[in-house]
Amino acid sequence: MATIYDCSDKSELLTGMRLARAAIGRGDLIVMPTDTVYGVAADAFNSDAVLRLLDAKNRTTASPPPVLVPGIPTLDALAETVPDEVRALVKAFWPGGLTVILPARDSLKWNLGETDGTVALRMPDDPIALEILSETGPLAVSSANLTGEPAAMTAQDAERMLGESVIVYLDGGEVGTRYPNASDGTGSTIVDATALGRPGGAIRIVRHGVISDEAINEVLDAMPKVSLARADLVATPPVEAAGESDAVSAPAKKAPAKKPETKKPETKKPETKKAPAKKAPAAKAPATKAPATKAPATKAPATSATTAKPAAAKASAAKTSVAKAPAVKAPATKAPATKAPAKRTPAKKAPAKTAPAVRAPAKKAPATKTPATKTPATKTASSKVPGEATP
To answer: Which of 16, 107, 206, 251 is most deeply packed, by most CB within 10 A?
Structure first.
């Protein structure tokens, strides 16, 4: 059978507090007073204890319990972000009857139920509750009553509804007296501040409780304009980029200063310098072809035309011209230029007959010279050749 410990008695207070701490450590449930109503508490980081709490109240995980904390430092440790508006409300009403819903840290290893990544936090204004919280850490706490029943205002009311599901009951007397304007059984006021992380988001009151709406709005209206300006600055960077924020002089001057910086990386360098670099080898290709054609065309007929001497001199000139021809044609890549003289080289066997054979290519280049006058000269030379061959 559960025991109720009268906390007005010092000895029972010490015993009850010691047993309550031990019960929390084992994953059991306790009942303790708060500034609003009596609450049933369990270790927030023990998922089995949290499920045991929901079962005692005949609830499901669709109704996750709030978490009571011993102070503001624990608020920063459990919430991912704490906006300025929430800090103003906490400063005004903590410890007290205000519960704030905030995004929970992803690193927290707990299972409070279907929270959608949020957590409801409150610091109660009761010495017994704060003493327990300072020793146990954050506790999952819900009103100490069955679902659908009125909230328990005394430890005896809580024991009548929850019975043996709770191990330790701490009796702190009747609660709720700190809020004379609130009716019995009124819980804390719950505000949802998760929308403050989005542009244009605002605080929403999701449950009216011991803290009036007027008191909450009075705190928010009294906030310095600087906090509102900070909220606007979160959304101003894209507006500044569009050149629409003239009110803020400092960011407006910095915005045009950044635009010319983006123009500094010149894109023209690869455009103009690389194009002429590709055209340079194209110009050199025709330059090599020009000397290749001129060399064999002019030098070959020049040696044959100027030497009108005996056949022996012509034969030696022919041999030198034939020797020079392949030397010039070796670097040249044109196939027709080299093949023409190469095929006519068999004429070297008959020196008397090679003279007209060598003159045949010479006649193509200097077309103006009359071959008719030179042909009889070759005939007389041919008649002399046999005469010279007899000795």
So the answer is: 16
Alpha helices in the chain, H assignment, sequence order: 10-26, 47-56, 72-78, 84-93, 127-136, 155-162, 213-221, 225-241, 249-263, 269-306, 311-329, 335-343, 351-364, 371-389
Q: What is the DSSP string of 281-318?
A: HHHHHHHHHHHHHHHHHHHHHHHHHH--S-HHHHHHHH
The DSSP line for 28-60 is --EEE--SSS-EEEEETT-HHHHHHHHHHTT--
For the chain, 391 residues long, the average pLDDT of each consecutive 10-residue run is: 91 97 97 98 97 96 96 95 96 97 94 95 98 97 96 97 97 95 94 92 95 96 60 34 34 40 45 44 42 41 39 40 40 43 45 44 45 41 38 34
Spans of all domains in the chain: 3-231
pTM for this predicted structure:
0.59
Cβ-contact 85, 223 below 8 angstroms: yes
CATH of 3-231, one of 3.10.20.340, 3.40.50.10320, 3.90.870.10, 1.10.10.60: 3.90.870.10
- Pair of tokens at residue 239: 């507006």
Label residue 185 exposed, middle or buried (CB < 10 Å: 0-12, 13-18, 19+): middle
Q: Whole-angstrom Cα distance, residue 82 to residue 219? A: 16
Q: Measuring CA to CA, which residue among 121, 96, 122, 100 is closest to residue 179?
A: 96
Q: Name, in order, each residue with C-beta under 8 angstroms of 283's C-beta and a sequence gap of 6 or more.
A: none
Type of residue found at 188: S
Nearest CA-CA partner of 156 in 178, 168, 171, 166: 171
Q: Which of 168, 151, 169, 87 is nearest to 121 (CA)?
A: 87
d(CA 95, CA 104) in angstroms, rounded, equals: 20
| Residues forming beta bridges with residue 340, ordered by sequence position | none
**Which of helix, strand or coil describes residue 253?**
helix
Alpha carbons 72 and 353: distance in angstroms, whole number:
122
**How many Å separate Cα 24 from the centre of its chain?**
44
Q: Pick left, alpha or beta for residue 85 (phi over 0 → left; psi -120 to 50 → alpha; otherwise beta).
A: alpha
Beta bridge partners of 99: 190
Q: Are 125 and 95 in contact (CB under 8 A)?
A: yes
